[in-house]
Design brief:
This protein is mainly alpha-helical. Helices cover 69% and strands 9% of the residues. The chain is built from six helices and three strands; from the N terminus they run ααβααββαα. A three-stranded antiparallel sheet has the order 1-3-2. The protein starts with 5 loop residues before the first helix and ends with a helix.
Length: 143
């Protein structure tokens, strides 16, 4: 088997880290009754307050049809509501409910605690190295 290039090694590590994080997050949040994409939608709507499904799908990097299904399920749970534009009745916005705002705060705290627990055993130097490496990669991707 040919030796793996640096780009391939980085891609493999990113894929493995992504899978591990998704699985750990799924396990951490399984008791709150929301999927990761649903939590992501709530987080975005908590910040932006009101978006069209197309805008939300763009922010989530998911197809509009996928996000529409997520919004349907969140609406059934009374976590979001669809609101027609007063100016143009063809436009429908998605807004976060008060209940979802409360859940968002709880999820935000859970996520912070989860990440803090991951880094609990890392030294300050290791944390700085992780941050520096991620910032470097991000900078290279922007170019």
């Amino acid at each position: 088997m040919p030796e793996m290039g640096t780009g391939s090694q980085i891609a493999l590590l990113l894929r493995e880290i992504n899978l591990m994080l998704k699985e750990n997050i799924r396990n951490t949040f399984k008791n709150c009754g929301l999927t990761f994409p649903q939590m992501m939608a709530i987080r975005i709507l908590s910040k932006r307050k009101r978006l069209k499904v197309t805008e939300l799908s763009s922010e989530m990097n998911l197809a509009a049809s996928t996000v529409s299904g997520i919004v349907d399920r969140l609406e059934k749970m009374d976590l979001v509501k669809r609101v027609r534009s007063e100016e143009d009745k063809r436009i429908v916005y998605v807004e976060i409910s008060d209940r979802a705002e409360e859940i968002h705060e709880d999820v935000h705290n859970l996520m912070n605690n989860y990440l803090e627990n991951i880094l609990r055993d890392a030294s300050r130097e290791e944390i700085n190295a992780i941050l520096a490496g991620l910032e470097t990669l991000k900078g290279l991707l922007i170019k």
